[in-house]
Amino acid sequence: MFAAVRSVSFRPLARTLVTTPRVFAGHKPPSLIGEGAKPGEVPTDENHSTGLERLELLGKMEGIDVFDMNPLEMTRMGTLQDPIKIYSLAPERHVGCTGYPADSHDTIWLTVNQHLKNHRCPECGCVYTLDFHGDPHAHEHH
């Protein structure tokens, strides 16, 4: 019949404040989402482009080829002792071998990756290796 009475002490709640300095000084990377055109205006490429298209456009405005689509400079034949290094930010890259000297055979596509140290063209024997400069812990999920 008699309920146990708990003694409840009322105390004001303490609020913990955590402040972190906001870093607004300096330059932040440009947004990959365009701001859009103002009402009544025709949008330009800079206004409405997004994602990779905007990245490429911003790179061209800065004079940078963000996709680096230039062909490799083949000044020699790659050997096992001195392979042709393929610069890559990804753990895998596709290379089209046309032989040495250039255009000695039809294009043979090779997948150069980190699983093998060297990759050899089956037509001419030129050897390629991946020169990986990316983040090894970025799991490249697509």
TrEMBL record:
Region spans: Disordered? 29-48
Q: How does it sit in the membrane?
A: Peripheral membrane protein
Q: Where does Zn(2+) bind?
A: C97, H105, C121, C124
- Tell me which InterPro entries the record gives: Cyt_c_oxidase_su5b, Cyt_c_oxidase_su5b_sf, Znf_C2H2_type
The UniProt keywords, alphabetically, are: Membrane, Metal-binding, Mitochondrion, Mitochondrion inner membrane, Transit peptide, Zinc
What superkingdom heads the lineage? Eukaryota
Question: CDD domains from the xrefs?
Answer: Cyt_c_Oxidase_Vb (cd00924)
GO CC annotation terms, alphabetical: mitochondrial inner membrane; respiratory chain complex IV
Look up the coiled coil feature and give its residue ranges: none
Where do the C2H2-type domain residues begin and end? 121-142
Q: Where in the cell is it found?
A: Mitochondrion inner membrane
- Supply one GO BP term: mitochondrial electron transport, cytochrome c to oxygen
GO MF: metal ion binding
Protein family according to the UniProt entry: Belongs to the cytochrome c oxidase subunit 5B family.
Protein's name in the database: Cytochrome c oxidase subunit 4, mitochondrial
Natural source organism: Ceratobasidium theobromae
Q: What is the lineage of its organism?
A: Eukaryota, Fungi, Dikarya, Basidiomycota, Agaricomycotina
